Amino acid sequence: MIRKYIFGSPIETGAVVGTSVTDTYEHMTLMDMVYDSTSVVLSYTMEEDDVIYGLGQQVRGINKRGYLYISNATDDPNHIETKHSLYGAHNFLIVCGKKTFGIFIDDPGQVSFDVGYTAIDSLKVTAGGDCVIYTIEGSSLKDIVKQFRKLIGQSYVAPKWAFGYQQSRWGYKDIKDVRRVISGHHDQNIPLEAVCLDIDYMERYKDFTVDREAFPDFEGFVEEIKQQNVHLVPIIDAGVKIEEGYDVYEEGVKYGYFCKDEDGNDFVAAVWPGKVHFPDVLNSDARKWFGGKYRWLIEQGIDGFWNDMNEPAIFYSQKQLDQVFDELVAMRNENLDINSYFHMKDIVSELSNSPKDYRSFYHNMDGRVICHDKVHNLFGYNMTKAASEAFDTIAPDRRILMYSRSSYIGMHRYGGIWTGDNQAWWQQLLLSIQQMPSLNMCGILYTGSDIGGFGGDTTPDLLMRWLEFGLFTPLMRNHAAAGTREKEVYQFDRLDDYRNIIRIRYSLMTYIYSEFMKSVLDDEMYFRPVAFDYPDDRQAYAVEDQLMVGESIMIAPVYIQNAKGRYVYLPEEMMMVRMKSPEEKTCEMIAAGHHYIPVALNEIVIFIKKGHLLPMIILPKQVKTMADVDETRLEWLGAKDDEASYVLYTDDGISKKYTEKSQWKIIKMRNEDIGCGK
Amino acid sequence: MIRKYIFGSPIETGAVVGTSVTDTYEHMTLMDMVYDSTSVVLSYTMEEDDVIYGLGQQVRGINKRGYLYISNATDDPNHIETKHSLYGAHNFLIVCGKKTFGIFIDDPGQVSFDVGYTAIDSLKVTAGGDCVIYTIEGSSLKDIVKQFRKLIGQSYVAPKWAFGYQQSRWGYKDIKDVRRVISGHHDQNIPLEAVCLDIDYMERYKDFTVDREAFPDFEGFVEEIKQQNVHLVPIIDAGVKIEEGYDVYEEGVKYGYFCKDEDGNDFVAAVWPGKVHFPDVLNSDARKWFGGKYRWLIEQGIDGFWNDMNEPAIFYSQKQLDQVFDELVAMRNENLDINSYFHMKDIVSELSNSPKDYRSFYHNMDGRVICHDKVHNLFGYNMTKAASEAFDTIAPDRRILMYSRSSYIGMHRYGGIWTGDNQAWWQQLLLSIQQMPSLNMCGILYTGSDIGGFGGDTTPDLLMRWLEFGLFTPLMRNHAAAGTREKEVYQFDRLDDYRNIIRIRYSLMTYIYSEFMKSVLDDEMYFRPVAFDYPDDRQAYAVEDQLMVGESIMIAPVYIQNAKGRYVYLPEEMMMVRMKSPEEKTCEMIAAGHHYIPVALNEIVIFIKKGHLLPMIILPKQVKTMADVDETRLEWLGAKDDEASYVLYTDDGISKKYTEKSQWKIIKMRNEDIGCGK
């Protein structure tokens, strides 16, 4: 049951599309509520064993207890534990304990969640005075999520090729670089489905342009690599470069499609291209116009994009910069003391993503002029919506790949996300494991983290372990920042191991895609905390580093350096499949309970639930892309002593016509057809 | 067996004092060696199961495999995994595997350790061309450490009171603040032995001064709180403020005791006091002079210090700052592009601790003028040596507490360290657990981390879990940065739990002190990796989050948020003691092997080795300081089915006369005298 509470004059975010819930209520019974026109404060006293789920892309564990989280989309690559905000704003929580219910705060400004931070037992949610709050009660954790997901609408579906392995790096500059990446993989028989182009491919970082020196015949090149079944996935940034003669800039100015400053002039920020304007993607005309710009690249053969810098990130605004320089020049002639020195460092470091800047520009939301800081968390969402709505016109029948950095509840209908500029830390591998179910709750199913870490220099073992987890994420992308160690897998020794791990992904493609699609079409979670499947098992609630993936399996990735194994908790007896490659695997029944499981650096383990089946594709020796794979050649893994079944979803992987639930195939297997290496 | 290899003209660091090893050798057999006058490069191919121990204060796990470490003392509070250097330089490694040996690189400049970072199996150590290298072969890991420790001399011994609980905060400004901290603990019956004074107590941050407005009668105040058996522990910073009329400054100038710049003038850096000179603690006359300055505070009743900012940290040098301002002013008039913007941010952020500055000043090492960057890692060590040598004159018979931030091998003879400006991250609690045995290998026994985390806002549960580990570290100090959440334990709910945890420390004081002293006097490690005690157990080498503490026990701290238990590996059957307080405890025999052990937030578990005993003091109801504790009232815990023994060290806790080994008491217990709550 969903209850809706309306406070003040909320901004229509578009987060909610479900029409079944229109009743509104006055008095909240699930939580204590204080409303005073500038804020809504919800309070709740947690019991010792209560678990709090949710908040999508945030720091810390699956159980969010013990910290203060603030929804405030932020371009900050340093995802340490004491940060309060990352790139997205996902105001959905589940309280699970003596009472179990979900709560969604539809407020596009800052919302804070004090989950036992100030006082260990106290949950306190603070939103602005104009918002809509939904409470969701249901029969189980899964049911609450399902109701929420119905409320916010069906998740985005990526084309099937986008489940292949993607390689990216900020620094692939030209055709030569891209060719080298493709042949670096394919010559070594390592699958590779796509190469992502970071900002380097553009002409002076201008959206919807291509550097013609680096890519003299871009369309021809797109076609050339498409012949190899490899896709190019260019980045699109939020800011439009201010440059005379640049059509996007000139049109935006002409039609008034950019965000305005206090004086009604087009707001000027500086990002990668230098000075830019921001397209006012909260305005439906501007959104339509900006989305239409993707057409040019699609017409050149591009079928996938990533939207970046759309919190929106601001390196500086001219106004702030001028003020800082004025202060610096004034300081120049003074005898600096230590306080002035720190002030100097602060004003320079605080230039980027300054709240002052976010308070100084405006949107025209179809007639309603509104200051950006009130709707800050909607920018990335609407930039992605712009593209997605345009794709429906440009390519109405086929899916275009799209993933964004910033997001808000509702954006999951238009694209996926990657988890932003993480770092080459083992701790971030764990964080990315823990973020997956939280994101899935919010409908963000097409997602994954930058494998090996974006910033910092990765190590061969971290990359290996991260691939071993990443092979389960719908978006499986190895990406790196400029200046960091090159980390395409062929840069390292032990290439056989890297190849095997990526080949395991390809052998699991039928399962991964089927489970992803079922999650989309049935409003389910592809990644789930263990307790979601075993709600009566208290121990399951403590598990923070294992995930249920799809209907059949549980995974237990290794995320600790030098570990040669790990502890795994099994809520019931399961069949463990240990794999070095799709071909080298052993199966073993493992009893319910706690186990130490050896897992060598070049191995993964998968746990198959009893009564369930895991389809694995029997791969040919040479797999360069999914085109080399015959998905009719399946082997089925499962516990020998069970009759088991599997609900298999298939479709053509590209059209927007999805297979109806009534057509999903139910595979039933007898013992003799199930097993390792059958 | 220790072999010594001399390259070029090494600088005498004083790290080595052992006289038994005087033979020198030409050709290293343990590792491949390349020497070319500017560098020595040692290489070694690691086998899959080789474990690398050592490196003292560094990032990452106990097993150092998988990263690039650089010895380069650095004031950097952001101890993330991708940092290469922290505050100390501890160039001691143990290779443990097909060959097992130790190696110590006595080189006070930068030394790098590529431990499987570039290539997963390759260990490569790179030192400068002038250094001494020692290789150590022995019968076991413990034996190798013992030989190394004999080589570098006996560790510093803190007064016994310094094993009590210490409370610190950057921000205790005056008598009122200190009194509030003491009564905040003592009024609530929470033990507190010392309050540390950060830079706020000084007059304009001048070493060896006291702010007379904040502390009008400092000597009287020291005496007043000493009546309550509480000690004040003031900080001393490396830089001496440049201020006319300030005696330390004027004397240093007059006698030429400060480090010089290229032109022979006293080198000017800026740190907390503003412009400072650095005392040339590498010069024996200057060291003697600077050390003598501690006398003034000791004469006012002070009996403990901490030496800070002694990497030495440099916020900026005037020369660099002028250059940066020149650049900034020039930029002011240009149309900044994005590259210039990042350049601007970089030059400002790189002002601090700039390698350029470290290359621009000089020491006079008793006649030999040497550029700072060649001996950078010796500064903190010699600052602490200055104090310690002076203490021998000022207070020849009694121990003075001393711990330093920066250190080098050899400093362990003069003081302890705290692990510097860590953060309120769970990950840093784990890091501090992992650093302890590595520091102990290098003789640094009096050590601990800032409990709850120095930077960032701690959470009630993190503080609790950190205290539960910190109660085993010889230095047990709760410290916090200015601007962060107040985190004296009485700031939080559940005070009973915090009190109980700190009382457990006091009940274990006999054991902790005895084990510390035995480790000092016998060149042993107080904290050991599990494999050091169980070298034949392969599984023990994988354990990265349990420690052997002293002769009798193993600990398994909880360091994961919201965890209600953890996995523990027992190499043999042990007795588990579960404790909520010294009085509330249960004992249970646990079989060898892997276990999941529930550990509530307000509990600790201790594992007692069979045949060993754990003495616990039976505390009175009210314990404010160790003065309230009667150490003759002991209960003895141990496995019931064993006759067990314990080697008990005792002394007066303050004099420098330590009890001879022949006088250590061997306690033997029969079954009926052992147990929980006996």
Quick overview:
Chain A has 678 residues and is α+β, with helices and mostly antiparallel strands.
Describe the structure.
- The structure is a homodimer.
- Chain A has about 675 residues and is of the alpha+beta class.
- Chain A contains 16 helices and 40 strands.
- A 9-stranded parallel beta sheet of chain A has the order 26-25-23-19-14-13-12-28-27. In chain A, strands 29-30-31-36-33-34 form a 6-stranded antiparallel beta sheet. In chain A, strands 1-11-8-7-4 form a 5-stranded antiparallel beta sheet.
- In chain A, helix 5 crosses helix 10 and helix 7 (about 320-330) packs antiparallel against helix 8 (about 340-350).
- The two termini of chain A are about 45 Å apart.
- The mean pLDDT of chain A is about 95.
- Chains A and B meet through helix 7, helix 8, helix 12, strand 32 and strand 35 of A and helix 7, helix 8, helix 12, strand 32 and strand 35 of B.
Detail the topology: elements first, then pairings:
The structure is a homodimer of 678-residue chains.
Chain A: E1 2-7, E2 32-35, E3 39-45, E4 51-54, E5 67-71, E6 88-89, E7 92-96, E8 100-106, E9 111-115, E10 122-128, E11 131-137, H1 141-152, E12 165-169, H2 175-186, E13 194-197, H3 218-227, E14 231-237, E15 240-241, H4 247-255, E16 260-261, E17 269-271, E18 274-277, H5 284-292, H6 294-299, E19 304-308, E20 316-317, H7 318-332, H8 338-349, H9 355-358, E21 361-365, E22 368-371, H10 379-394, E23 401-404, E24 407-408, E25 416-418, H11 426-441, E26 447-448, E27 450-451, H12 460-470, E28 476-478, H13 495-507, H14 509-521, E29 527-529, H15 530-533, H16 538-541, E30 547-549, E31 553-555, E32 565-570, E33 574-579, E34 585-590, E35 593-598, E36 604-609, E37 614-617, E38 634-637, E39 644-648, E40 665-669
Parallel strand pairs in A: 6-24, 12-13, 12-28, 13-14, 14-19, 19-23, 23-25, 25-26, 27-28
Antiparallel strand pairs in A: 1-11, 2-3, 3-10, 4-7, 5-9, 7-8, 8-11, 9-10, 15-18, 16-21, 17-18, 17-20, 21-22, 29-30, 30-31, 31-36, 32-35, 33-34, 33-36, 37-38, 39-40
Helix pairs in contact in A: 5-10, 7-8
